[in-house]
């Protein structure tokens, strides 16, 4: 695909513009600080793109303000009775010192972090993050299988990693889905919404009317679920016009 890249500055807002072989203009405001991007058809002049952005300045500033004021989780110290989240529920951390292999145990309202007596903060964090990744993968694999049948698509690979600005992403050519580890802290419905969003990209690359129609079909509550994610701590969902 032919692409021309440029930048437009409007006051304190710098917009990255990518002109591509597409039909419609796509304006996005990206978390966490409200970075703005525009994908526009090659036929549009840069001045026309600029005029389009000016017409949407109110919308841009509204969503930038919302993102910048969004709740953020405080840094974790991995100590006893500290709050941690799993599938939308709050758990208290319990540090269990032992000389056997390190592990994580979910016990009622407590997440037990079983570690060696001399374990440091980074080791405790790595242990919990590895457990989170494994749990999320176990949750999404049956969801993918169900959605593959509904959508008549095939995912070649799913991987879990830490992402700063997105809940998920899809490599359309490789049919590979990446999901943010932080998703495992959210309710299962929210996880399924993000997974559906990424898998719909296997049917439609762009966030256009066709994409929205697919979302309405496969995830009727998707707009509500998106709003829930945007209101929650560590919200990383892209806002797309």
From TrEMBL:
InterPro entries: UTP_pyrophosphatase-like, YgjP-like_metallopeptidase. GO terms for molecular function: hydrolase activity. It comes from Candidatus Staskawiczbacteria bacterium RIFOXYD1_FULL_32_13. Residues 26-231 form the YgjP-like metallopeptidase domain. The keyword Hydrolase applies. CDD domains: M48_yhfN_like. Keywords: Hydrolase. This is Metal-dependent hydrolase. It comes from the Bacteria.
């Amino acid at each position: 695909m032919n692409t021309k890249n440029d930048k437009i500055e409007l006051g304190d807002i710098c917009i990255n513009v990518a002109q591509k072989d597409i039909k419609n203009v796509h304006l996005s405001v990206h978390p966490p600080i409200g970075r703005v991007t525009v994908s526009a058809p090659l036929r549009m002049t840069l001045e026309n793109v600029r005029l389009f952005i000016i017409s949407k300045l109110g919308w841009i500033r509204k969503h930038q303000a919302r993102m910048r004021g969004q709740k953020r989780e405080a840094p974790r110290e991995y100590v006893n009775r500290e709050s941690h989240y799993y599938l939308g529920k709050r758990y208290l951390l319990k540090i269990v010192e032992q000389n056997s292999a390190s592990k994580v145990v979910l016990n009622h309202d407590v997440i037990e972090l079983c570690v060696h007596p001399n374990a440091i903060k980074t080791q405790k964090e790595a242990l919990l993050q590895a457990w989170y990744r494994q749990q999320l993968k176990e949750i999404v694999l049956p969801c993918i299988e169900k959605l593959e049948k509904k959508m008549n698509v095939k995912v070649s690979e799913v991987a879990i990693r830490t992402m700063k600005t997105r809940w998920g992403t899809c490599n359309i050519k490789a049919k590979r889905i990446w999901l943010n580890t932080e998703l495992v802290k959210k309710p299962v419905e929210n996880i399924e919404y993000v997974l559906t969003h990424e898998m719909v990209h296997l049917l439609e690359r762009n966030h256009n009317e066709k994409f929205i129609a697919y979302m309405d079909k496969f995830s009727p509550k998707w707009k509500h679920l998106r709003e829930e994610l945007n209101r929650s701590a560590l919200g990383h969902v892209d806002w797309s016009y």
